[in-house]
Description:
Layout: H1 3-7, H2 10-13, H3 21-24, H4 54-64, E1 71-74, H5 76-88, E2 95-100, H6 105-112, E3 116-121, H7 130-140, E4 144-148, H8 160-169, E5 173-177, E6 199-204, E7 217-220, H9 223-232, H10 240-251, H11 253-275, E8 280-283, E9 290-295, H12 298-307, E10 313-314, E11 324-328, H13 332-343
Parallel strand pairs: 2-3, 2-4, 4-5, 5-6
Antiparallel strand pairs: 1-7, 6-7, 8-9, 9-11, 10-11
Helix pairs in contact: 4-10, 5-6, 7-8
Pyridoxal-5'-phosphate (PLP) binds next to α5.
Amino acid sequence: MTEIEALMNEHIRTLKPYSTARDDFKGKADILLDANESWLGGSGINRYPDPRCTALRKEIENVLSLPFDMTAITNGSDEAIDLLIRIFCRPGIDSVMIERPTYGAYRVFADLNGVEVIDARLKEDYTLDIPRMEEVMAQRKPKIVFICSPNNPTGSLYSKEDILRIADANKGITVIDEAYIDFSGEEGMWRAIEGNRRIVVLRTMSKAWSLAGARVGIIVSDPEIQRAVMKAKPPYNVSQLSQQAALDMLSRKDEIAGTLSQILSERERLSSFFRTLPFISEVFHSDSNFILVRTFDAERLYDYLAARSIIVRNRSSEPLLQGCLRITVGSRDENDKLMEVLDGYSL
Ligand SMILES: *Cc1c(COP(=O)(O)O)cnc(C)c1O
């Protein structure tokens, strides 16, 4: 048994995957009478979608350089989180480790699967507490460690060295969620998989690629884990409409790059502005498309903005985030409006 197989749940390792009509017959034919579809055409969606997202994964290799045999497409990265927990963790027995504060979905999907969550509190400066995490991993042996980099909601990247130290000390799977990597100017960590096959990287088309509504997530992993994901996922998890939308967006990569540089300059403009406001005590560095700020009264500022039709995210009840609001970098017009409204706020 390989190292990866030994980490997998036995029922996944031995699972006979559902065989779709599209798996049985590959190639071109004039008459498809194998899948009980309707012949009545409608935007190309009278047929079942490609369960393997072949065309999309080829284009992802071309545009994002992520190798075809290392990618699997999911119904948003939320589905990827759920699948990875189900592949590697036994309900009631295994655990996962997450940083705090971080993205809420890891906990929800662990809870949903009956898998215990171990919290690893970040340091005051929102960096990884390596000795503490190493100690917890040695004692509790979590099956998966989730690392969100850049982290949501703090906004910043962890250092590559820190992430690799955790991934090497972790005998289970290390999932690096790179939903915001496009805003960081960094390439991300997928190339580290070659040196440590227990690393899995998550990407999404929901943020920089403007496709939150289409639900397109990308798992990048060693081909052995990729095959397990292909087996464990629902066969038609990514609709034809979503696959088409993703291909369309990848073909508009220049436009996406233009929008990205606009977001980065708006991020700097907003951050500088926030620093001039007397009721904002801290503006945190961002490698993402949002900015975390600390205010003296998060509820009051939230309500003030909401009353003026501007909604931000109140994260002040999370550990280490007292008084903190998370604000997405909007369009230039939206940011102008936000700045105008903030100018009218008084303590
Ligand atoms: C937004 C976000 C995602 C994206 O989830 P999708 O299901 O792909 O839309 C994943 N991880 C983090 C940390 C996020 O903030």
